[in-house]
Amino acid sequence: MDTAQQAQHAARIAEQGYTVIEGAVSSVLVGELRAALDRVEREHALGYAASRFEGYQTVRIYNLLAYGEPFWQVPLHAAVLPIAEQVLDPELLLSSLSAITLGPGQEGQPLHEDTQQIPLARPRPPIALNAMWALSDFTVANGATRIIPGSHRYDGPPPFGAELPTVAAEMPAGSVMLFDSQLWHAGGTNTTAERRYAISCYYCVGWMRQQENQQLGVPMELAARMPRRLQELMGYSVWRGQYGHIANRDPIELLGRERTTQMIWDDRRVAALASPSAAEP
Ligand SMILES: O=C(O)CCC(=O)C(=O)O
Question: Per the confidence metrics, is the pTM higher than 0.85?
Answer without folding.
Answer: yes
